[in-house]
Amino acid sequence: MHRRTLLLSLPLLACAAHAELAYPTRPVRIIAPQAPGGGVDLVARIVAEQLSQAFGQSFVIENQAGAGGSIATQMAARAVPDGYTLEIGYVATHATNPAVRKVPYDAIRDFTAIAMIGGTPNLLVVRPSVPVKSLAEFVDYARTNRIDYGTSGVGTLNHLVMEQFKNAAGFKSLSVPYRSIGQAFTDIVGGQVQAIFPGLAAGMPHVRSGRVRPLAVTGVARHPLLPDVPTFKESGYEGFEGVTWYGIVGPAKLPAPITRSLNEEVNRVLANPAFRQRLSSEALDPMPMSPEQFGAYIAREIAHWTAVARANHISAD
pTM of this prediction? Predict the structure, then answer.
């Protein structure tokens, strides 16, 4: 009986092994749900380069902008689950968008979580003319003075995290949405808004130039690029560990051997000191996870930002 069971199982084992060893046999498409030049595009290209070298097959980037990433993400969800269409799933497509709008996909059920790549914390910055040098001074000032802050759009992470902070600190501030965080920085320099809560990668050039003053960063620890800037937790505000994160996802029901092979290779790359330094130069911190850990992370992110959106009556529909 045991011999018969073993014989019956051998073809299945051989098939699984073949699927793992044979993949990929042709170019793999990675959909980047953002126009060229942004953070998603950057992450997509440096990861595709590494995967191409590792697997000896081309990993080709396809940029699909529009509808906050929903068009590209729906395309990835509907792809054949054979490992030849992947997506850079990130905080917008798989956390904040589902929290604030009706999207044409289920960020959990329609996808296979493959590998987390990394994230960058968010940074609260103000115009140098705003007379504050700490988070406590900012809160005191905002309670008695008008503060307008710029965002990259309704329901984006930099919008939601500022609303979360306003709610926690007890002050009012007007949100001014822009088409991009770059436009928001143009207006903070010009004096139209007084504060922004961008990702660290987007904010660092303006911090270095002195055009904005940093007050606090999200995350569990101070960032090496800004060792003198405290975290929100240090400043007395819990629950501000969120980051602008990026990972790789595929359609639901992606074969387990392919998922495992991709995850192992991404984590191997993330362990490489030279690659970690390359990410660090872009203010990105490696966040290696198993597929199961990444899937659970996505679920927690959606739950968290849905709660923030509801508490602050934020909807992009």
Answer: 0.82
